[in-house]
Pramef6 protein (Phodopus roborovskii), 478 residues
Amino acid sequence: MSSPLTLQMLARSSLLKNEALAISALNKLPMELFPPLFKDAFKGKQTKILSAMVAAWPFRCLPLGALMKFPDLEILKAVLAGLDLLIQQKDRPRNCKLEVLDFRDAHHNFWNVWAGTEDGVCSPDVVVETQPVVHHPERQGKEVVTVMMNLSLHSRHLCEYLECFHCWAQQRKDVLQVICEKLEFGARPVYNPLELLEVFAPCSIRELEVNARWDLRTLAKFAPGLGQMKNLQKLLLHEVITPLRWLWNQEMKRRCFRQIVSQFSQLNKLQHLCLNRVFLLNARLDQVLRNLERPLETLAITRCSLSESDMSYLSQCPSVHRLTHLDLSGVTFLNLSHPLLGRLLERLTATLQTLKLKGCMLMDFQMDVILPALSQCSQLVEVNLMKNFLSLTSLKKLLQHTAHLTQLTLEMYPAPGEVYDDFGDVLPDRFVQCCSELLDTLRAIRQPKEVYFVSKKCLDCRRFCVYHQEASLCSCWE
């Protein structure tokens, strides 16, 4: 049985049935009625009322993103029309306090707080806690409105929603500050990505992720924008490819690389650098890292080709001596001097919390060299050595060297070479026996929290055999 309607609900319903009355009543409406009335108008797509409410909003921030599950062009146009009404007013109404329009999926608590105030008054302290802190510059004596949004661009073209906002914002630069803390490209754009930064303040961007296959030319074209991101803390580049017609044009590749790398000296606040399948790094890693002024917390160089000189530089690079997270998964160490990896780990014994060396083609003789340093990484919480070629003896030695790593909560190791037949297929009984033996070795020195032993992928079923410390038999993963 549904709850009976309250007097406030009935009043809101009555107002929304008469747009003219609702708009004229806004100046006299108690502030505690604004959020629930706005939510009702939002659900009903009553755009004229929404525009008027934006122009009369009695709070410092309007967290619109918390209400929007999907971009809605009608709602956007209504809200921007309301901002125009506000901007055009020479003297703001005393009750109107709007400074920030927040399109991010955040500050849900604001709406939850006010939804629960129908029978009481909301504390001013609670209202303040639900509002973001933003610096508002003044431009030529004009009050500036701040718009906040995070962008995840998964289409090659700008959608109609963003095109509308971009066009509107470009025409109001003198009274508008647009903050985008997280910018993600999920596709290679056909438009010039630098055009976005004509609207968004580049210095507001904290995280930049390029999760699409950008070619070298597109990244070089975007590089000047990267250099303007003075407060960038996280940079992720996934799969930078070379256009086919450039494969033999070394001069063009060098020129683009210089354009990209020259911008790293501007990233003074970078803390997390993640590079996956960025093949232009080979023999050039020093040119990327030497420009960083601040020590990194995270360095992930995965599925990349690194040269001997790259590893030599990495083992002594000033920017990596405080790493808490190191991921070199997919970097092949078969032809590299393995002592360099040991030297790198020696520098990180006091700080390293996560170590991922998955699929690095590490063998027994290489593990022998890095074990002394690994055993001293007392802050390690997670270690992943899957997809390497280690024997039962080598794995036992590895586990015995982890006696002092009491912080470990997640450990993932390769199944030993002895579990496979001559064709590389897993022998189930042998798999269980060897993994059980390894677990007993580990339990003899410390009590593990979560440990997995994982086989190579089966050629027939395309799955991995997994042995977990809670399981008496192996299971399969996709």
